[in-house]
Prior knowledge:
Number of strands of chain A: 11
Oligomer: heterodimer
Structural class of chain A: mainly beta
Helix content of chain B: under 10%
Structural class of chain B: mainly beta
Distance between the termini of chain B: 36 Å
Largest sheet of chain A: 6 strands, mixed
Largest sheet of chain B: 7 strands, mixed
Number of strands of chain B: 11
Strand content of chain A: over 45%
Helix content of chain A: under 10%
Radius of gyration of chain A: 14 Å
Order of helices and strands of chain A: EEEEEEEEEEE
Strand content of chain B: over 45%
Radius of gyration of chain B: 13 Å
Shape of chain B: globular
Amino acid sequence: RKEVEQDPGPFNVPEGATVAFNCTYSNSASQSFFWYRQDCRKEPKLLMSVYSSGNEDGRFTAQLNRASQYISLLIRDSKLSDSATYLCVVRGVIQGAQKLVFGQGTRLTINP
Amino acid sequence: NAGVTQTPKFQVLKTGQSMTLQCAQDMNHEYMSWYRQDPGMGLRLIHYSVGAGITDQGEVPNGYNVSRSTTEDFPLRLLSAAPSQTSVYFCASSYSGAAGYNEQFFGPGTRLTVL
């Protein structure tokens, strides 16, 4: 089982729609969670951190469910500029040291 | 600030050749790392460094060497290129001496093809 799993998509939704992604992680001791955004043929950039109480940044809402070991990202009133790949990232332990583990990404296309 | 820079942007190698991917940051970050990104695999950590003179292996270190003689530079060396090393390579840096405590800033990537 992969440490971090995402539905690769692609998700194709019309502009203005609400879309949600989930990401599951296997290590129950994971402590930090993030969503990064990656545009086509570009580098990943931090979208938002995910806090235990959930957090919101404009049209974006992130939630953490520790009991079920998943995090989610909700995008409301989607814009054409939201088209990108969204990477779920978890701080976990690889070979005894704290490291970031990346999901394979969920591709989102917003259609006009 | 230029942020994190990587050179070259593109490279084609023949099997068995060696080369060095360059990475530099001007943000005085302690933590630097190298990832490779392959379709359907997500980013995988190759090597990382928590400060000048300190490096350690990540998830997929075989076939790669690194060194960190200065805070700014963190080159990645391919010792004897193999087709399995065809990938997009990203260098990243962050403030903290450990991963995940601070935002990771990525370079623009190097697209490497090994024939």
